[in-house]
Amino acid sequence: MRWNGWKLGMVLVILLLVSGCGERRELETSAFVSVIGLDKAEQDHQVKVTFQISNPQVNTTQSAEAQKEPPSDIVTITSVDLLSAKELAQSSLSREITFSHLQTIIVGEELARDDLFKHIIGSAIIDPEMRRETIMIVSKERAQAFIHANKPTMETRPHKYYQFMEDNWRKTGFSPVSNLNAFFQRTEGELFLAAYATAERDPIGIRHDDDYSAGEVPQDSGDPVQMIGSAVMQEGKMVGMLNGEETRISQLLRRKNLIETMTAEFPDPLNENYQISLVLNQSSHTEIEVDTDRSPVKIDVKVPLQVKVNSNIALEDFTASQKRRDALREMVKEKMEEASDSLIKKLQENYTGEPFVWYATARRNFWTVSGFENFEWGEKFKEADVDLHYEVSVTSFGEQLSPPAFKKFEEDK
């Protein structure tokens, strides 16, 4: 029997296609874990792993058949590590557990502050299903309690809930965009900010809209979970916290800001009895220069900031004169620089390092990696001379009932 070239080619193609079916897995035989919770167990070197497994039939074309079924199942296993807990969980689950749809990892604060955490998460990343894009959140309470308490009314699918929350972080800046990839990149001494959350309420009274941490927002009803502020991680464990305002500023001081826009309250420069709401964003990257040849190290930072008036409660007309417009711009500049200086002072006094990724700029001044490591950037930052300036431009003064043209007004005397 003679084989033509094209027939042989067709056989090879078919063999290649069929050979990929050996590891196939039917959807109905899989248990898709969307959220993992990690807590410190009572025994030494043990961890409690909570798996939140999505119900694939909820909110689908088969939802009519699953009207009385819960949107997810929650199972907690105590073991030596995450992957061992995954195997042990199969003792009570008929379907095969998979991390292919894993969206979020919740870490209880008690475990996050323990050296055990970096060993647990470091050993788990070898699983090819553990994606480095997985969202990382630190919960004030135990992760097991947080997962059970988190029952959002607007979104029954847990993986969609956390995806939407991450999208909100990019728009508000209340929490950092934190994932496993960034965490593993900064385990050598640099500070890493992880989103901070809680389902416990501990209101502290009315403050500015971003001057809260998780659980402190004065909320009377709605979903129990609050995500605002950040957990400060260093060398793989939690060493402190930043509130919502400090978290926002931390992202503005990075060379590349991940926040699209954010709304904040400021004192009205024309009427001290009122606050004015402003929308802030950046049109270009923050400029950072680091002089490592002098002692102490000199750091120059210029932050471009665009401002739009969002809500003007005092109904003051900033378009009436250049003097009024300058007062608004100077007020924003002063308040932002004051808050940024306060944050830098807090970091220098309490931590060895910074979360702004300024070390990447300083590293360019060294020929070798070992040279930079011997420089001990974290210690140098504690004594660094930081010169920080905001370059504020006001692009909109808000909607007016009768918006006047600038040229029709005389300057205030």
From TrEMBL:
Q: Main localization of the protein?
A: membrane
InterPro entries, A to Z: GerAC_N, Spore_GerAC-like, Spore_GerAC-like_C, Spore_GerAC_C_sf
Q: How does it sit in the membrane?
A: Lipid-anchor
Which terms are listed as keywords in the entry?
Germination, Lipoprotein, Membrane, Palmitate, Signal
Cellular compartment(s): Membrane
Segments forming domain Spore germination protein N-terminal: 24-190
Q: Where is the Spore germination GerAC-like C-terminal domain?
A: 229-398
UniProt KW Cell inner membrane keyword: no
UniProt key word Membrane: yes
In which family does this protein belong, per the annotation? Belongs to the GerABKC lipoprotein family.
Q: What is this protein called?
A: Ger(X)C family spore germination protein
